[in-house]
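Marked as duplicate of an earlier ticket. Keeping the data here for the record.
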Amino acid sequence: MISEITNVYNSTIQSYKILELADAFQGSAVLFFANKEELFNLLENPITAKEISSIKNWQIWKTEILLNALVALDLAIKQQNKYSNTKLTSTILVKGKSTFQGDIVEHERLQWNLWNSLDKVMTSENATTEQQDVRLIQESYDNNVFHNAMMQLADELIDYVIKIEGWETKKKVIDLAGGHGLYLAKLAAKHPQLCGEIWDLESANQSANVVITEFNLANKVKFCNKDITQSASYINQKCDGILINHCLHHFKPQEASDILKACVDILENGGIISLVESFLETDKTSPSSNALFSMYMMVNRQFGQVHSSDWIANELSKHGLQVEVNRINNPADDALIVARKK
């Protein structure tokens, strides 16, 4: 009898894990809405639900329930009927602060319709209208949010790339699918002898030039409108450094292989390829967070998928490069792959 009760209890606990996952969208939706409405800016100082409802023209009782939900999600604090930010939300979700990462959250919100049409993604050989291949070209707001979000995500990784030994002797570095170009900008700002190019599609031009201007690098760094999947982009090109940061997961394996081969071909002897990608084991199921990120990329891009770190290393080493794979163990569990051409 006791064993039967124990089995029922364990089964109930396990079922709650499924239900908790099914309910997870509710917390996401609350965060998305609060961020979009810049609610965390209002919560920088203690404020009542009535005051917020007046500012936002919301129903008072609904405003109070929303704010209580933010408290339940550990996104706000309630004291004496006044609400305010937690230390975390004050740091990363108050628009205007240098530490603001709300564009990452907004980028996720803009995918809501896409994830609700997973059946179309699974059956279509072409990019669907909600996938980034199409949406970021058609929607300037979405495109701007995307590049801002990628810049915010890059911040924690740039130091790993800059600290690679050997940049002090390099003269020309190409930032492949560099988008905002922040990696190259910070690298060029540190090493006076180094210049370079940001290669990406025209949709990244504005974001890249904002960074180039901000770092005062117009005489050293330029944006080039190039499709890195096209062999013509690499004709008559030579460099002694290449950055490939969170790029390969946009492409199917053969395209990624061709891109890496083209990089090897234009790299001078003694050159460096610095490649940042999500760390993924050969079985492609672990770590679980990056197996899920592969699903995320498959949904977001026509050919999106995460390639195993060993596969990437092998693709570089088969062309004679000396390759080192470093699992960074950062929150996103990325790998820094450094390849050197002898």
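See parent ticket for discussion. The chain has 16 helices and ten strands.
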